[in-house]
Amino acid sequence: MGRKLVTVRRIGAIKPIEGADRIEIAVIDGWTCIVKKGQFVVDGLAVFFEIDSFLPGTDARWAFLEKNFIDWNGQRGFRIKSMKMRGHMSQGLLEPLEDFPEIIGVIKDLEAAHGRSEAEKIVRGLSFEEPLGVQKWEKMYNTWDGGEKKENVPLPAFIQRTDQERCQNLPDLFDEWKDEVFQETTKMDGSSMTAYFLRSDSDKTTSLPEVDSSVPQTALLHNGRFGVCSRQVDLGEQDKNGRYFWEVAKQLDLANKLSRLDRNIAIQGELCGSSIQSNFEGFPVGIHDFFLFSVYDIDKQKYTRPKEAEAMARKLGIKHVHVEGYFRLGDIATDIQGLLERAEGKGLHGKKREGIVLKHVDGGFTFKAISNSYLLKHGE
Known about the structure:
Elements: E1 6-10, E2 13-16, E3 23-28, E4 31-36, E5 45-49, E6 53-56, E7 70-72, E8 75-79, E9 83-85, E10 88-90, E11 93-96, H1 101-114, H2 116-123, H3 129-132, E12 135-136, E13 143-145, E14 148-150, E15 165-166, H4 173-177, E16 181-187, E17 191-199, E18 220-221, E19 224-229, E20 234-235, H5 243-251, H6 254-261, E21 265-273, E22 288-297, E23 302-303, H7 306-316, E24 319-320, E25 323-328, H8 329-332, H9 336-343, E26 355-360, E27 366-370, H10 372-378
Protein name: RNA ligase domain-containing protein
Domain RNA ligase: 182-369
Organism: Neoarthrinium moseri
């Protein structure tokens, strides 16, 4: 399921900010937003725009943000980021429901069909980024092949894109999962990388882009096809922006190692190094590496258990992201704030870490807690 960027939320609390006459804090599930004083009331419904929502500048409702518009993906608009005001975190944008007739229309239709109480339950499970033209802001990369620009080839449809829900979006987390055991790992700040292998007899090979077989290609193996991807793009071996992805894949001999498994599989992890994401993890110059965090069974279309992923890293002779341990969720924290506090800590080389990831022992449910100090440092 894709991330829900625009949702209808009920306001849980309104808190004053000492010394502030015009602003206050609205609490929405696990998020806090700084808002105009008196604009919202406790238990009222509002529209919440999550961090990294990109609001289109063509919508007049965002004119008040125009001085902070940016150009992204051929468009002009506003990117929502974490910020700190008067010593308080503001994470997201909260707007009055009455300003969005598109959403009010959906609510009225639902009320007519299901009644008011059930309509609210349904609408709070919906996401409204599409009708509002809101997109998820992500760094954009051009892909180059042999010196010429070309269209990006998307991540293969048979592989699930790496994405975890933030703990703040899981209001019932502790009610439902507090007695369950999770693997806790350190979240690393790099680029998401996927390496996959498809056997020759897989019917999914026909969905892959053609490879020029007239020159040696790591992707072409005797028993199948190997590929390397960023979070969104299947990178060709000659793609300029795939340079470090392919260099590390070759350095670790991933093509031959996955080929020897002789199964349809994808391994996913974090590509980190001196040339990746401003080297937040503090690698020496010229050093890059891959840290596995999950294994995706292409035939079963599901992730393996965390323990199996750890075993796979050992079998392939590659690194796994640091495992803090396996814990009952209720022993890690008792609420969302506790998880956010636990997310603070040191990373691989002693620098402040991005946060933590928790995966249920059966591999079917995972979420993340991102360090607030990390978000502020990176403007996210």
